[in-house]
Amino acid sequence: MVSKNTICLWYDGAALDAAHFYAETFPDSAVGAVHRAPSDYPMGKEGDVLTVEFAVMGIPCIGLNGGPIFPHSEAFSFQVATDDQAETDRLWDAVIGNGGQASACGWCKDRWGVSWQITPRALVAAIADPDRAAAKRVFEAMMQMTKIDVAAIEAARRG
Q1: pLDDT of residue 3
Q2: Which pLDDT tens digit goes with each residue over 18-29?
Q3: How would DSSP label each residue in 93-109?
């Protein structure tokens, strides 16, 4: 691994499955080396997948099969900037359709509990609109959404 800073995500035995899903779903993502435990350990046996090197949209990660002790939370999320509704729909539907769970304001969780923000660039631009009334309308519209609806965001921005 080349990077000096790598995100380590803790899984309950499913790091390899998660890495494969991310590689199949998100662009510029891939599964790298798979390392097996050299001996038994508290949450596994010798030969079990211990860690998996992978990248999510170019970000280096390690999946650690550490067991159920530390579940994922919304305190960490991947924020994915999308260019249009089609890309937003494709990524959202992939995460939700693979056993994930919808949340609010463009947030969802995959089936392993990792949080994702599927965030259209149009939303970010609209919330940063120098017209504060337009930004407020957009923010209030977003607060009512689960998956972000780009057309509704643009309509709220226009007033």
Answers
A1: 81
A2: 999 999 999 999
A3: HHHHHTT-EE-STTEEE
Structural domain harbouring 127? 72-159
| Percent composition of the chain: helix, strand, coil (DSSP 3-state, to 5) | 30, 30, 40
Which amino acid, residue 93?
D
Report the domain count for the chain. Answer: 2
Q: How many CB atoms lie within 10 A of CB 7?
A: 15
Q: What is the pLDDT of residues 67-84, one digit of tens each?
A: 999 999 999 999 999 999
For residue 15, which of 44, 57, 41 has the smallest C-alpha distance? 44
Query: 61: burial class by Cβ within 10 Å (0-12, 13-18, 19+)?
Result: buried
On whether the CB atoms of residues 44 and 13 are closer than 8 A, the answer is: yes
Residue 31, domain CATH: 3.10.180.10
